[in-house]
Amino acid sequence: MSPTGTASKPFGTVLTAMVTPFTAELEVDYDTAQQLAADLVALGNDGLIINGTTGEAPTTWPKEKAKLVRAVVEAVGDRAFVVAGVGNNDTRDTVEHAEEAARAGAHGLLVVCPYYSKPTQAGVLAHYRAVADATDLGVVTYDIPGRTGIQIAHETFLALAAHPRIVANKDAKGDVWAAQRVIQATGLPWYSGDDPLNLPLLAVGAVGCISVTGHIVADRIKAMIAAYNAGDVALARELNMALVPVTHGIMGRLGGAIMVKAALDLLGRVGGGAMRLPMVPADEATRVQLRADLIAGGVSF
After folding, report:
1. Whole-prediction pTM value?
2. Which of 126, 170, 173, 176 qualifies as a FRET site for 204, CA 20 to 30 Å off?
């Protein structure tokens, strides 16, 4: 049984892009992943992204990815959406990953814009259509030009929004005006994919966020979004301001995967620790600063 979404919020409101736990021998730790997933749902997440960038997906193998999706779906049941990251710069490979994720029980697919190759916008459109046609699952496009080298253009979004299985976008472009224009033109459900812009994107029509800091503060992000949606903008602003040190500590230095694993480890929670190369854990000086940032942001130790 899967959770029930709506057209306006197809995969819930607060989703965390979950880290992939590894053993000391750098094998995927599926038992710990299940515990972490359950912890994240208890903290307030109604969705989880598995096998994304924060999950170190470039370093995990297809069989590991599928097994991880199955494990997390089993752990959370119908309490949260499980959206599988399947994107690659090879369309055929992305389609195969999408099909495998569907067989593993994913509720949706997160598909990053093809990276490195820098295809034309016609190629981007064809890529997404091919993936969306491959399964019955809803697709979340993922626009993050800082990593991919290209953006999804406005006109491409207009075409993508017409596809019945392209149901949302994860926005890490850093351009609130561009987001506003697409939302106004298409009504495509919009998720902030950049924690520093969660509140600004809500202000122009986002329905929720796909977060990294949600590992630690999903409950507070959920409260911020609820306040904004209830019309209490002043409270939403206050709650968002209180999160600034946490957001800076996790997102403003070495990148989400490194810092959030360090944060989980500092807090004595499951999911922190080992990383597969080329990612390496935060050093001690960075961990000391991160602890100070978390405390400044109201995180209890």
Report:
1. 0.97
2. 126
